[in-house]
Amino acid sequence: xxxxxxxxxxxFTISAAARPLPLLEDSLVTYYGELAKSKNDSLSESxxxxxxxxxxxxxxxxxxxxxxFNKLKFSKLQSEDGLVRIFNWNQPYQxxxxxxxxxxxxxxxxxxxxEWFELKDYQKEVDKIENxxxxxxxxxxxxxxxxxxxxxxxxxxxxxxxxxxxxxxxxCKIVDVIEFSGSKVRLGAAIFPGAMGNxxxxxxxxxxxxxxxxxxxxxxKCIVVDHLAPKSSMMTGVxxxxxxxxxxxxxxxxxxxxxxxxxxxxSEFAKSDDRPFVDPRAPQRRRR
Length: 288
Known about the structure:
Blueprint: H1 2-17, H2 21-37, H3 41-58, E1 75-78, E2 84-92, E3 98-108, E4 113-120, E5 134-135, E6 143-148, E7 157-164, E8 170-181, E9 184-187, E10 202-207, E11 214-217, E12 222-230, E13 242-254, E14 257-261
Antiparallel strand pairs: 1-2, 2-3, 3-4, 5-9, 6-7, 7-8, 8-9, 8-10, 11-12, 12-13, 13-14
Helix pairs in contact: 2-3
């Protein structure tokens, strides 16, 4: 009798410890739905932590890299080379700011193994962050909506496009670099043109009352962006007054770096079938 009870206990423990991926996904969907409706910062923090822990638990399951997670409505991206997956969501605070969570899965094709990394939102202003190399513990938090493999020979470096609802005055679009180096992740690389030479990432800050497009066109290997300007020259540097001025700029990947071409003809991109990025903020806040 004792042996029978022990066997039942062991079977129960194993089944409780190893939950199938569909069950884990259902729990993730429940917690994320509660997060979307939360009006309490402490509750939101708790729900995000539960989501984070469940995702980490799922990473131990066989087949997790291929599991679609179709029911989850937050950002799930996969690189074109099929070696990197991103799980990324934003947690809104009641003051209009956001905290971001990001977990990465990376497949090693030669070893046939999968490892995971966590990027931690630093939540602090960093001086001249466009020129800083960051790491997984000091991440410029964002909601990524595209991951780009621009060089087929490099399966350790990726460009990511992201959105940051910075505060109740301005929003940012971010073009950054994720680079894997052994068991570490590095963020940023000196491959973007800047006013003082090459910089580590691109950050476009503008008014919450407008929207800005930052889109990648894979056939041309380029990023097309709305050119930002203040309504008045008197407001130069006051980003809450910035918005698209009707012209467009292009960043072209050339010789392992991005070159800037200003005031381009947008007509050849106008009929693109690329899906637009849906801004998480309420639409009524984006009008000008």
